[in-house]
Specification:
440 residues; alpha+beta; Cytochrome Bc1 Complex, Chain A, domain 1; 2 domains; 6-stranded mixed β-sheet; 5-stranded mixed β-sheet; 16 helices; globular; disordered N terminus
């Protein structure tokens, strides 16, 4: 009886938690195709203005890669009404902060201000969309910035190239096969007209979502949105060709020699469903169970207990067309990457064969609940979630539904999805090795 009462109390607390965390929002379209999402929360005097464009590295010409990431930098260069070097000064002088990021499917710009500077944020983002200056000075300046970024993050960084190396083997036809930062040779050879064409194609209101979240008055905000973004002309419709990969049926073996490392690594990559599909949520749970953090099965077994691994890591990649689960490790001492691989396979086999324990299952649910709360604990986090859910998952209300999806996934479902996607013959095995020394 006590057990049933305790369970009822837990369920009641969980229900109250979900109700308390519900995010209300309103969404609509302007005549030019811009999708607008407004979230009003007057509990603190802050506001986030954010614009997500449906353009990432997958939208690039295979012979002109790196454009999406390049534009993340270029569109801070200035506009018709904002001089070069003034963007960050305007943000900081109004008590705000901002940034941008690019990935496979989207590019995201955002600012957070005291709420009395909301109009500044809307003006800035409308300027970025309507009046960008794509000129020689800005282009040449940002080419140097991106070159330095690649040197720091990829070329001269230990294990910095593993992401690119895995993608080029995981995909044969799909544009996910090149890295987000792209090719410096492509950027160097691109013309000013190439950059202007890319901007005209993708940085248009009908390829974007604007989110305004925080301490706002919705009716006044709608008026400002209409004033600043309404006059921006609609762009031409974007023709996106769906590219599907043939399933991997035989293990893809690859090697890469990195001059920046001394300890080899083994990386295993599985192609998994696009992030909006239910199986992608299950894969995220499997990834967390096996290899996320020091409490994961692989870390405890290989690092803590057997002490054969220096580090175990996972990089689950959520993307629109395909996602992926990447797991790997670094051996310690005289242990080999083959031993690491064998132990990873043994743990995956357990998930495919046996149900995970009820205790582990509850720990998993707790982790995802914490992630959900943390991701949406700030106005800027809520703005990001609303934009991504609308643009990449076609369901803005996932901000209120996603935790329920994870809670509905059963232990049996975890076992079946592991059987379906985590097969040895359906993966890339990348041996990431120190550079070979010249025998002479």
């Amino acid at each position: 009886m006590k057990r049933h009462l305790l369970l009822a109390l837990v369920l009641l607390v969980s229900l109250n938690f979900l109700i308390a965390q519900e995010v209300t929002f309103e969404e609509y379209d302007l005549d030019n195709g811009l999708h607008v999402i407004l979230h009003q929360d007057n509990s603190a005097p802050v506001v986030t203005t954010a614009v997500m464009y449906h353009v990432g590295s997958k939208d690039e010409d295979p012979d002109k890669t790196g454009f999406a990431h390049f534009f993340e930098h270029l569109l801070f260069e200035g506009t018709k009404n904002i001089d070069r070097g003034e963007w960050d000064k305007i943000v900081s002088s109004n008590g705000g902060s901002g940034n941008a990021n690019t990935f496979l499917d989207r590019t995201y710009y955002y600012e957070t201000f005291p709420s009395n500077s909301l109009e500044v944020g809307l003006w800035l983002e409308s300027e970025r969309m309507m009046h960008p200056i794509i000129g020689e000075i800005g282009v040449n300046t940002q080419k140097e910035v991106v070159q330095e970024e690649r040197r720091l993050r990829v070329d001269n960084s230990p294990y910095g190239a593993f992401f690119e190396q895995l993608l080029k083997n995981l995909y044969e036809k799909h544009p996910y096969r090149w890295g987000v930062i792209g090719s410096l040779d492509h950027l160097a050879s691109a013309t000013l007209d190439d950059f202007k064409k890319f901007n005209k194609t993708y940085y248009v209101p009908n390829n974007a979502v604007l989110v305004v979240a925080g301490d706002i008055d919705k009716e006044k905000t709608k008026k400002m949105v209409a004033d600043y973004f309404g006059p921006i002309p609609r762009g031409a419709s974007i023709d996106r060709t769906e590219i599907r990969e043939e399933p991997i049926s035989n293990t893809i073996m690859a090697k890469y020699h990195d001059p920046n490392i001394q300890i080899p690594a083994i990386l295993l990559a599985y192609r998994t469903p696009g992030q909006a599909e239910r199986d992608a949520y299950v894969i995220n749970m499997i990834s967390t169970y096996l290899s996320d953090g020091e409490s994961s099965k692989l870390y405890k077994k290989l690092v803590d207990e057997k002490k054969i691994a220096l580090q175990i890591f996972s990089v689950p990649i959520d993307a629109e067309d395909y996602s992926s689960y990447i797991v790997g490790g670094l051996p310690v001492g005289d242990n080999s990457i083959q031993e690491i691989k064998d132990e990873i396979d043994a743990e995956i086999l357990k998930v495919q064969t046996d149900l995970i324990s009820e205790k582990d299952y509850q720990k998993l649910l707790n982790k995802f609940e914490n992630r959900f709360v943390n991701a949406n604990s700030s106005i800027s986090g809520i703005a990001n979630s609303l934009a991504e859910n609308y643009m990449l998952r076609d369901n803005t209300n996932l901000i209120n539904e996603e935790l329920g999806i994870y809670r509905s996934i059963t232990r049996e479902e975890i076992r079946e999805v592991a059987k379906k996607y985590l097969k040895v013959n359906q993966r890339v095995e990348l041996e990431y090795l120190p550079e070979q020394k010249d025998a002479n």
